TrEMBL record:
<dbReference type="Pfam" id="PF03551">
    <property type="entry name" value="PadR"/>
</dbReference>
<dbReference type="InterPro" id="IPR005149">
    <property type="entry name" value="Tscrpt_reg_PadR_N"/>
</dbReference>
<protein>
    <submittedName>
        <fullName>PadR family transcriptional regulator</fullName>
    </submittedName>
</protein>
<dbReference type="InterPro" id="IPR036390">
    <property type="entry name" value="WH_DNA-bd_sf"/>
</dbReference>
<feature type="domain" description="Transcription regulator PadR N-terminal">
    <location>
        <begin position="8"/>
        <end position="85"/>
    </location>
</feature>
<dbReference type="InterPro" id="IPR036388">
    <property type="entry name" value="WH-like_DNA-bd_sf"/>
</dbReference>
Length: 183
């Protein structure tokens, strides 16, 4: 499953032909970086690769906003792209995975750290997660009046994941003295 491919094909299927900058703006508007691994800047490369395999096609080149603005290539989804969209969507709905967190590996190799150094590192992660949670909650409050369909539950999914991570870090901090005594 390719998240960027799924996003671009979905946007083109839903909104019709668009140029890369419009697709990038849609990604920013949808805040895709909050709930996927998609980076808006990578979407141009995705478009070019999908053109090579005939999932999208160039329908025109246009220049907007006056003579100084760059030419923009407008893409449309092809029939092959619509078939790929269904494959990507169905794969994403079936694919259940919780990505490994590198902290789990790092925690296996901390005997050279004092308890306080380890506590500080874990607490810094917890603080970063709390900041992410606060930001996501603010995004949710701002977006709430405009959310439709399944969008409210997408926010809830991300909020729940952040809360679970925070709870795990807090439990680790609480148990740390006992866990380190066992080593």
């Amino acid at each position: 499953m390719n998240s960027a491919r799924l996003f671009v094909l979905s946007i083109l299927a839903r909104r019709g032909p668009m140029h890369g900058y419009q697709i990038r703006q849609e990604a920013k508007l949808d805040r895709t970086e909050l709930w996927t691994d998609i980076k808006p800047g990578s979407l141009y490369n995705v478009l070019h690769r999908m053109e090579q395999v005939n999932f999208v096609e160039v329908v025109r080149t246009e220049r907007g906003g006056g003579g100084n603005s760059p030419e923009r290539t407008v893409y449309a989804i092809t029939d092959e792209g619509r078939a790929e969209l269904l494959i990507q969507r169905d794969a994403a709905l079936r694919d259940v995975r919780v990505r490994p967190d590198p902290v789990d590996l790092a925690l296996q190799y901390v005997p050279d750290l004092s308890e306080q150094e380890l506590r500080d590192a874990i607490d810094a992660r917890r603080q970063a997660l709390l900041a992410n949670l606060a930001m996501m909650q603010q995004e949710h409050r701002t977006a709430r009046p405009y959310l439709t369909g399944l969008e409210p539950m997408l926010f809830e999914h991300n909020l729940a994941r952040l809360r679970a991570e925070i709870a795990w870090h807090e439990a680790l901090l609480e148990e740390l003295p006992t866990l380190l005594a066992d080593t």
